[in-house]
Specification:
The chain has 428 residues and is of the alpha/beta class. The protein is 38% helix and 16% strand. The strands form three sheets. A seven-stranded mixed sheet has the order 4-10-9-8-7-5-6, sandwiched between helices. A four-stranded mixed sheet has the order 1-2-3-13. Strands 11-12-15-14 form a four-stranded antiparallel sheet, with helices on one face. Bound molecules: pyridoxal-5'-phosphate (PLP).
């Protein structure tokens, strides 16, 4: 079957709403490399969107999964519970930031984790309102869409959304939005739209993912914590994309000196198996009545076994440190290219959650065309990259943290070639 045939079959058989950014049909994958059916090799700087932080098919993860497959694959934890679910909850309760008693629930997707965090906050506070940020991404369910701060393509055509969701600008110095402006907008929101005593939760990503890899400034995080404490609001950190050593710490909130009440986790938690969860203050998690949380597949035992192996690998292979080393190398290489690629407006991001933002060479206008061209040029050089950003003018780099030095260096060379090639084309 050729790739072209597959592309035709795909578009005939699969919903148009499931967009794809490449026409590579994966045949096999190992650590940071993917091969297609024609034997073409690609370097994977997407990691399934920050999922295989421990690489494709890490031997420890595969071994743990195989061992679990030989025992049982599904009982539904709500019917016949199992030990590895309990042990993973205990482990996350210890590891997630916050020096207080914590509890966990496992679900299957990130959007579901977000939904459940908000359900808990509403049940615990008896309030309705939820505050989120422009540029945020929290999933594709109805509440996820309502919390997400980008219309196209996430909300287009889907009608009225969940009510009592409010939004404020997210600070981005590069685009002239300061922390002070964000806090002023929050103050105005409390005056014009919803009194703080009706707000159940404030939710944010410590580093906005789909929104463009903008880290939340520490002053914002501190102010939000103070506001949450003052008004009895639950602070939710959505660590779905930032979690599991990606930013140079196990959780991005460890970069701040304040802690959230609830943390949502997914993506990197189980090395490619669908598993998500909410971890946080025991009294908030426990506000939901028995039966109010969970789901048929939530905390699938095979995914849980994979997650235990992922946490072991992160610790044993010191992947947080590795994220910092590789991220610094990548940022350094991008910064040295700034003189020859004037479209580079910013290089940023903690650990190996790195992004480069492109403007027009002669102005501060976002340059999504240049960004798309770089992604495509890199793809022709067999390097898989992802874009992001509200203006579509950011390339985000999410390679597995286990990537070998030689493969990483090869990818940086291809990236450099792509950037120089597209910049030269634009200069003509
Ligand atoms: C920060 C964040 N929250 C929530 C989600 C939704 O996760 P899922 O796609 O597993 O539903 C994502 C996915 O990209 C995300 O990055």
């Amino acid at each position: 079957m050729t790739a072209n045939n597959l592309a035709g079959r795909r578009s005939a058989a699969i919903a148009k709403g499931v967009g794809v950014t490449t026409q590579i049909y994966a045949e096999r994958a190992e650590n940071a490399e993917i091969w297609d059916a024609q034997g073409q090799r690609y370097i994977d700087f997407a990691a399934g969107i920050a999922v295989v932080n421990t690489g494709h098919r890490h031997p420890r993860v595969i071994e743990a999964v195989k061992a679990q497959l030989d025992k049982f694959t599904h009982t539904c934890h709500q019917v016949v519970p199992y030990e590895n679910y309990v042990a993973l909850a205990e482990r996350l309760n210890r590891l997630v930031p916050g020096d207080f008693a914590k509890k966990t629930v496992f679900v299957t997707t990130g959007a579901e984790a977000v939904e459940n965090a908000v359900k808990m906050a509403r049940a615990a506070t008896g309030r309705q309102g939820v505050i989120a940020f422009n540029g945020a991404f929290h999933g594709r369910t109805f509440l996820g869409m309502a919390l997400t701060g980008k219309v196209v393509p996430y909300k287009t055509g889907f009608g009225s959304l969940v009510g009592d969701v409010y939004r404020v600008p997210y600070p981005m110095e590069l685009h002239g939005i300061s922390v002070e402006q964000t806090l002023t907008a929050l103050g105005q929101l409390f005056k014009a739209d919803i009194e703080p005593s009706r707000v159940a939760a404030i939710i944010l990503e410590p580093v906005q993912g789909e929104g463009g890899f903008y880290p939340a400034p520490p002053t914002l995080m501190k102010a939000l914590r103070e506001i949450a404490d003052r008004y009895g609001i639950v602070l939710i950190a959505d660590e779905i994309q930032t979690g599991f050593a990606r930013t140079g710490k196990l959780f991005a909130m460890e970069h701040y000196d304040v802690v959230p009440d609830l943390t949502t986790v997914a993506k990197g938690l189980a090395g490619g198996f669908p598993l998500a969860g909410v971890v946080g203050r025991a009294e908030i998690v426990d506000a939901a009545q028995p039966g109010g949380l969970g789901g048929t597949f939530g905390g699938n035992p095979v995914a849980i076994a994979a997650a235990h192996a992922v946490l072991d690998v992160i610790e044993e292979e010191k992947l947080s440190e590795r994220a910092i080393i590789l991220g610094n190398r990548l940022k350094q290489r991008l910064n040295t290219l700034r003189a020859r690629v004037p479209q580079i407006a910013d290089v940023r991001g903690p650990g190996l959650m790195v992004a480069v933002e492109f403007n027009h060479a002669d102005s501060w206008e976002p340059n999504p065309d240049f960004t798309a061209a770089v992604r495509l040029d890199a793809l022709e050089r067999n390097l898989i990259l992802l874009t992001c950003g509200v203006h579509g003018n950011v390339i985000r780099f999410l390679p597995p943290l286990t990537i070998q030095d030689a493969v990483f260096n090869e990818a940086l060379d291809r990236l450099e070639e792509a950037l120089l090639n597209v910049a030269a084309r634009e200069a003509i």
